[in-house]
Amino acid sequence: MAQKKKTVNIEEKIISSYMEYLLENGSNPPSVFKFMKDLKLKESDFYEYFNSFIVLENKIWEGFIVNTLEILHGDDNYATFSSREKMLAFYYTFIEIMKDNRSYVLMRLSGDQNHGKTPLFLKSFKNSFKTYVEELIIEGQETGEIATRKFIDRTYSEAFWVQLQFVMKFWANDNSKKFEKTDEAIEKAVNLSFEMIGEGPLEQIFDFAKFLYQNR
What we know:
This protein is mainly α.
């Protein structure tokens, strides 16, 4: 009886080979043609999945979010968490996934010279993260954990995007054992952000500003 050949996932092979190439050479392959030739695949195979290396990298980074959410939703306890607890769980799980790809992530983050603008390879990553956060915010508003503030609450997802960038950069520079400092930074950052978007501090500021305006 003939032995069945193991099916090769072309998309996964392209992704893993591309990441390996970047780590070994510090730059993109000279061309799709040369890259695929070295893999002993046709150039057309690449375009079955990606239009360019930028699209490929978007897939890699978006995969970090997708994998994080798959792990979270696979835990029955996750559904019972508050929005704050879900955000903490997201960051902790996300960092674990990043650890498996630390060399690649550090190389890409260190090469980011966009001066505050989102790099092209992070576009899908950012969109997926903000979609997750927006759902979390709506859930928190429904339970009363997060305050509903006209116009201001529209900025929450962007604020959390800035927070995620902070977490990644802190982790990239963390030299503590098992990245314990990163865990501490995550806890402090999330707790502070949820204190700010919950009922309390901002309402007091608004009420005081309103009082001063009415009694000027």
